[in-house]
Design brief:
By secondary structure, the chain is an all-beta fold. The protein is built from no helices and 11 strands. It is 0% helix and 57% strand.
């Protein structure tokens, strides 16, 4: 079993900042890419940012220069620092982690967090 627990969402004014965290726990042998997605009401889920096991990062154009993704490998945790937040950033944010549960067989899969609400409003 693998669990992903997210935290850090909330209500913030435009121009403000939030830091999201997502910690993976359970039966984990190795963690590969870790990422953040978001889904606004009535819209499809979209990629926000991803970080590989080698710390390479990739960002959606709409967050470049404002959001920073990072990871703590010792704690199997991924972070998303969000600055200069805009009302259009309002969404439920989900972490997604590529995990191998054991060194044997085909035990690699991706897992989703439960989602955390981010609301940007004055």
């Amino acid at each position: 079993q693998v669990q992903l627990v997210e935290s850090g969402g909330g209500l913030v004014q435009p121009g403000g900042s939030l830091r999201l965290s997502c910690a993976a726990s359970g039966s984990i042998f190795r963690v590969y890419a870790m990422g953040w997605y978001r889904q606004a009401p009535g819209k499809q889920r979209e990629l926000v940012a991803v970080i590989t096991s080698g710390d390479s990062t990739n960002y959606a154009d709409f967050v470049k220069g404002r959001f920073t993704i990072s990871r703590d490998n010792a704690k199997n945790t991924v972070f998303l620092q969000m600055n200069s937040l805009k009302p259009e950033d309002t969404a439920v944010y989900y972490c997604n982690v590529d995990i191998q549960r054991s060194p044997f067989g085909t035990s690699r899969s991706t897992y989703w967090g439960q989602g955390t609400q981010v609301t940007v409003s004055s």
